[in-house]
Amino acid sequence: MKSWMRLDNAALIFPAIRSSRWVNTFRISADLTEEVDPALLEQAVKDLMPRFPTFYVRLGKGLFWYYLQEIDEAPKPRPEYAYPLTHMGKAEQRRCCFRVLYHENRIAAEYFHAITDGTGGEIFLKSLVARYLELRYGILVAEGQGVRTCREKPAPGERQDAFQICTGDTPLDRHEDTAYHLFGTPDARGFMHVITGLIPADKLVAKAREYQATVNGFLSAVMTKTIIEMQEGHVRKAKRRPVKITVPVNLRKVFGVDTLRNFSLVLNVGVDPRLKDYSIEDLCREYRRQMDLEIQPEKMAARIAANVLPARNKALRLAPLFIKNIAMRSVYRRYGERKGCLNISNLGRISLPAEMEPYVKRVDFMIGVQLTYPNNCSVASCGNLTTINMIRNIQETELERRFFTNLVKLGIPVAIESNDL
After folding, report:
1. Strand partners, 66
2. Which of 158, 241, 266, 356 is 20–30 Å from 139 (CA)?
3. Do the beta carbons of residue 161 and residue 261 sit within 8 Å?
4. Sheet holding 375-382: strands in order across?
5. For the chain, what is the radius of gyration of the CA atoms?
6. Closest Cα partner for 392 from 369, 372, 370, 371?
7. CA distances (Å), 377 to each of 48, 63, 115, 155, in order?
8. Cα separation values, 328 from 126, 303, 311, 322, Å
9. Could you give the number of structural domains in the chain?
10. What is the pLDDT of residues 203-260, one digit of tens each?
């Protein structure tokens, strides 16, 4: 009998709002010093299967809920094709909820968000690369720095739905002002355009410290300034709206848990540019104030409660799945993406065990566009390299051009890569 598990509280929404053109996926990849051996990579994927039971699952559909069920065989790695984050359709999700890709010296894992978040995805990708390097070079990578080895058994806490454990008793009011929305000409092919900025990590950290900000706070401030400039060019003053950045918060650090399933919430932080002309200093200060105010255990528990308590409602639990889907789509349209402009999702500094460092040149993180966000931004740092991946499904490059130009104007060197010809 195959084991199965309920979707965690954050994952409930993702199957309900997916469509034939959009599904919530993200990607983490590592560039190695030598070309990937596909046979050894396939063996590494198989070897990790007992260690990561919450990843090797398919999405099932019942009368009342979606669920995740273990699969019989590990997915076979595939050569990279088309473009990053190609559509993961329902048929693929019914076979496995993640894929492993390779191209030249790159190993990438792409995940359906229903099984994990960025932190869980990072742990799996690092563990996969560690096992591959063991097979390729005969080294032994110790567990630590986020690496879980196939020589260890899964810890019970890795499987838990931490939202159920850490929820508060009183839900936080979700009311927020609607934010300005980016727009553009949709790419008829559904192509995901990626422009990557490569930045020396030490210079980015030094510049953020000049503004007494974290790297994420500083990048959010620059992005906010960029979007304010764009809105001024496209919208007359009377019609302008607040500019807010959607920032995921890793709740493991707030509550001290170690689940490999989803355990993050998003905050929409920003300003109303109709009130004043905000400088970068003003924006860094404002983001620091808002984040300090919001990232408190009691505040996060109340945010969790706003999602968990409605799902415990007896009438909703007994409603057929199609009714739940209608309800969740309605909630998502009302509260999901209307309150922010785009995501900035930052994995932070990705540390590696000493045994792996000589073999890994670079790590990239990439979240797909959202249902209504045509642009998104993902950040990761490894060694002294920070990669900022800007993804879009529209033709216009105005946001990327303005954002990276603003970084250069602030004295930060940026090298640009793109998957566009």
Report:
1. 61
2. 158
3. yes
4. 264-271, 243-250, 342-349, 375-382, 385-392, 193-200, 415-418
5. 21
6. 369
7. 30, 36, 21, 32
8. 34, 17, 10, 10
9. 2
10. 999 999 999 999 999 999 999 999 999 999 999 988 999 999 999 999 999 999 999 9
Question: Which residue, among 238, 248, 314, has the nearest Cα to 273 in the 3D structure?
Answer: 238
CATH number of the CATH domain containing 190: 3.30.559.30
Percent of the residues in the chain that have a pLDDT greater than 70, as a whole number:
99
312 lies in some domain = no
Structure tokens at 135: 């097979």
Are residue 161 and residue 219 in the same domain, yes or no? Answer: no
Are 353 and 164 spatial neighbours (Cβ–Cβ below 8 Å)?
A: no
The dihedral sign for the CA sequence 141, 144, 148, 150: positive
Cβ atoms of residues 265 and 303 within 8 Å: yes
Helix (H) or strand (E) holding 295: none
pLDDT band at 28 (very low <50, low <70, confident <90, very high): very high
Assign residue 100 the CATH number of its domain.
3.30.559.10
Question: Looking at the structure, do residues 219 and 136 belong to the same domain, yes or no?
Answer: no
CA distance 95 to 74: 10
Six token digits for residue 37: 């051996």
Confidence of residue 348 (pLDDT cuts 50, 70, 90): very high
- Residue 306 in domain: no
DSSP letters for 23-73: --EEEEEEEESS---HHHHHHHHHHTTTT-TTTSEEEEE-SS-EEEEE-SS
pLDDT digits 0-9 by tens, 91-142: 999 999 999 999 999 999 999 999 999 999 999 999 999 999 999 999 999 9
